[in-house]
Design goal:
Helix content: 25-40%
Order of helices and strands: EHEEEHEHEHEEHHEHEHEEHHHH
Radius of gyration: 21 Å
Number of strands: 12
CATH architecture of the largest domain: 3-Layer(aba) Sandwich
CATH topology of the largest domain: D-Maltodextrin-Binding Protein, domain 2
Number of domains: 2
Strand content: 15-25%
CATH class of the largest domain: Alpha Beta
Length: 359
């Protein structure tokens, strides 16, 4: 049975008789997990996952894992509040380093997972994925694995921009012809921060800062990718840079929008995809169960479930059987990325961006 705990140590969202019976018969084995503001109870055989993926998407998958184990292994899931999201969970993992509580970290992006890798808090392991898994989707030391990605795309209002004038590159955010008509999220958090950290690693610090200054002066800067998608769908703006999950929601709602996978020409870098990541914590309390859950989460079966869902996430596995509806008919050329290089000097880079976009 999956238990979910919010930040302030509330009761489990759901209970099942199996867990209640097990607790009553094994009180002496009850463990307490330190939460932000209290203790979280669980049984000896439970595995603890901290998930930055939204509860509504993660819970059915974690429930399916429990059913697969015939409920011999329970899952206790911690979902942080929206205001702190990934950063809050990562900071808790760092704080718990002397006595780890979390077994598995499920991040809905990658940069802060790499941050934990560089701090030595993740357990290197051999992942149950087929040979030929993309090198940018698995850690150099095996401490994390990427799966079920989102892509960074251009979302266009088709009432405001004719097809022959669609922007085709992220670079067009700095084009004066689109001044105050295009948008991007502030690149301080989430996938937009990851995107420009990747560009810094590819193109160099000075070049990327210059590009960001040009975007700052030319585009409308909004608080997040969802806000970009809403502004474009409503006709407030002509187009913007956002994620596939936010773009497909507006398209599914019947919005007059098009989704362009940018930078597909031979002299362009390709479209960036940013995966979910799974990692087992070093010194995890239950490493065997943690490994089983981790391998289940990166499986083609899990990727297909996420691809079929409302966020239409993009499978990495060649064994995936479902094509996400957000993908175009023609193949997409993906950007080659070194996420570990992109995470170098993260704190100093974030401070520079804060100065530029703190207005």
């Amino acid at each position: 049975m999956l238990h979910s705990y919010a930040k302030f140590n509330r009761r489990p969202i759901r209970r099942r008789q199996r867990f209640a019976t097990r607790l009553l018969s094994a009180v002496s084995g009850l463990l307490f997990l330190t939460s932000f503001a209290g203790c979280v109870p669980r049984a000896e055989s439970d595995v603890v996952v901290y998930s930055a993926l939204d509860e509504e998407f993660a819970t059915p998958i974690l429930d399916a894992f429990e059913r697969r184990t015939d409920h011999e292994t329970g899952v206790v899931a911690k979902f942080d509040v929206e205001s702190t999201k990934t950063v809050g969970l990562v900071n808790q993992i760092i704080a718990e380093q002397p006595a780890p509580v979390c077994d598995v970290f499920w991040n809905n992006e990658i940069m802060h997972t790499v941050r934990l890798q560089k701090l030595g808090l993740l357990q290197p392991r051999k992942w149950a994925v087929q040979s030929g898994w993309p090198s940018d989707m698995i850690a150099s030391d095996g401490s994390w694995c990427g799966f079920a990605a989102r892509a960074r795309v251009l979302m266009i209002n088709t009432d405001l921009v004719p097809a022959e004038e669609y922007p085709r590159s992220v670079r067009e955010l700095a084009d004066p012809k689109w001044k105050d008509r295009c948008a991007m999220a502030r690149p301080l958090f989430g996938t937009t921060a990851t995107h420009f950290a990747v560009l810094r690693a590819r193109n160099g610090r000075e070049s990327t800062l210059q590009f960001l200054q040009q975007i700052h002066d030319n585009a409308v800067i909004l608080s997040g990718n969802k806000q970009v998608a809403l502004a474009v769908a409503s006709g407030e703006l002509a187009w913007g840079l956002t994620d596939t999950d936010d773009a497909i929601v507006e398209k599914d709602r019947g919005g007059k929008v098009a989704i362009v996978f940018p930078d597909q020409e031979p002299d362009q870098p390709g479209t960036l995809r940013i995966p979910n990541t799974i990692a087992v914590l070093k010194n995890a309390p239950h490493p065997t169960a943690a490994g089983q859950l981790a391998d289940y989460l990166v499986s083609a079966q899990t990727e297909d479930r996420l691809a079929m869902g409302s966020s239409s996430q993009l499978p990495i596995s060649r064994d995936s059987e479902y094509k996400p509806r957000v993908l175009p008919d023609s193949p997409v050329r993906w950007m080659k990325v070194d996420f570990e290089a992109a995470a170098e000097g993260w704190e100093d880079w974030a401070a520079e961006l804060m100065q530029l976009f703190n207005d």
